[in-house]
């Protein structure tokens, strides 16, 4: 996380133990490669007038050399925490900025930056997304994130516990479960979003535009992972889905890649979205012709609808893509992801995650 030292530091006497301790703790965290700090040249010069331990002082000298660049970065960063010298309660200023006091850091320590997925496997993929962004853009910064397991439907409760505990800055990412662009978010995403907006702690939430993580994965990496499997049945289903996406490019984001897209999708809130796709040859080959003719689903309940308008791909797609990416360097994976049809979205989310976990290179002891 990017910490910005407020101009109120200019009026602070850092021979005072609590203020001195807060600065040392924060600068040690920077030295350990966990965060990054920005400050104006005036604030850095003021701090250097006081006695600090060897490593924090080395960090101040490094900060002095890079102060203009870091302050410029702080003005464009999507996320930042402003540290003030006066003892105010921590609070949210905007969707991208929070305020925390030096006194609080002195008393409680420096929170770690954390990334919460609906499970740890999801969080691992999102961190790879951030590492791809860092590898391509050569920011000179590392990505330091503790990965957290949301527990799928329990994610809002787990996120609430983290907010109450206040030992971590948490970025939470959840599936939307949207079956079309106009559909509402699922209840998990709604609850996490409301919590993040109302909290006075450093927490943010991203709901995927896409249905699930599987739909968010870069298409090129999905293809590479499927090719690596060498399963003819999976290849056939992938080819059918690719034919749909070739004629309806954004449909890939809303297909149910794990279980298959049910015909019932045509007769609910996403009817207008899926109706044109029902005319696609792949859909006609899979769908129940009587249901299509009647324009209704013969199944009484959604769970009973067994008729597909598009096949599944595999319910282990995330694991397959993760395994494939583990065989590549971050730079190689990032270049391959960037040229995907949905590569821009992968890059945009990766940038947000990378900024949440922004950290200076670890200092040599």
Return the string of H and E elements: EHEHHEEEHEHEEHEHEHHHEHHHEHHHE
Spatial order of the strands in the main sheet? Answer: 2-1-3-5-4
What does the average pLDDT come to?
91
Taken as a percent bin, the fraction of beta residues is 5-15%
Described by the principal axes of the CA atoms, the overall outline is elongated
The structure class reads alpha/beta
Distance between the termini: 22 Å
The helicity comes to 40-55%
Largest sheet: 5 strands, mixed
Number of strands: 13
Alpha carbon gyration radius: 24 Å
Poorly predicted regions are none
Helix tally equals 16
Written account of the structure:
By secondary structure, the protein is an alpha/beta fold. The protein has 16 helices and 13 strands. The chain has helices at 17-31, 41-48, 54-76, 102-108, 120-137, 155-165, 187-198, 213-216, 219-229, 232-247, 271-274, 281-286, 289-294, 317-326, 330-338, 343-356, and strands at residues 2-5, 36-38, 80-84, 91-92, 97-101, 112-117, 142-143, 146-149, 168-174, 203-207, 261-262, 308-310, 358-359. The strands form four sheets. It has a five-stranded mixed β-sheet with strand order 2-1-3-5-4.
């Amino acid at each position: 996380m990017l910490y910005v030292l407020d101009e109120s530091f200019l009026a602070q006497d850092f021979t005072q133990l609590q203020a001195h301790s807060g600065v040392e703790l924060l600068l040690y965290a920077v030295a350990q490669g966990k965060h990054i700090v920005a400050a104006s040249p005036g604030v850095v010069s003021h701090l250097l007038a006081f006695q600090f331990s060897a490593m924090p002082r080395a960090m101040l000298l490094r900060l002095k050399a890079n102060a203009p660049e870091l302050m410029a970065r702080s003005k464009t960063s999507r996320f930042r925490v402003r540290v003030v010298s006066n003892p105010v309660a921590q609070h949210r200023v905007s969707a991208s900025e929070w305020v925390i006091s030096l006194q609080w850091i002195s008393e409680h320590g420096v929170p770690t930056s954390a990334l919460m997925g609906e499970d740890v496997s999801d969080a691992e993929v999102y961190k790879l997304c951030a590492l791809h962004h860092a590898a391509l853009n050569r920011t000179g910064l590392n990505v330091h994130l503790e990965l957290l397991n949301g527990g799928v439907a329990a994610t809002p409760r787990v996120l609430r516990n983290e907010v109450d505990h206040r030992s971590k800055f948490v970025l939470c990412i959840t599936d939307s479960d949207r079956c079309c662009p106009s559909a509402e978010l699922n209840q998990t995403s709604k609850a996490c979003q409301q919590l993040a907006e109302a909290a006075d702690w450093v927490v943010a939430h991203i709901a995927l535009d896409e249905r699930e993580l599987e739909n968010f994965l870069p298409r090129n990496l999905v293809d590479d992972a499927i090719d690596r499997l060498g399963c003819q049945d999976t290849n056939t289903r992938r080819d059918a889905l690719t034919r749909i996406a070739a004629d309806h490019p954004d449909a890939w984001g809303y297909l149910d890649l794990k279980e298959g897209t049910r015909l019932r999708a045509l007769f609910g809130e996403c009817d207008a979205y899926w109706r044109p796709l029902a005319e696609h040859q792949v859909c006609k080959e899979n769908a129940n012709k009587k249901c299509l003719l009647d324009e209704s689903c013969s199944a009484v309940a959604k769970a009973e609808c067994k008729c597909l308008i598009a096949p599944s791909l595999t319910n282990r797609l995330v694991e397959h893509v993760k395994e494939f990416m583990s065989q590549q360097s971050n730079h190689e994976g990032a270049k391959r992801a960037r040229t995907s049809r949905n590569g821009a979205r992968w890059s945009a989310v990766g940038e947000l995650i990378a900024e949440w976990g922004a950290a200076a290179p670890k200092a040599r002891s």
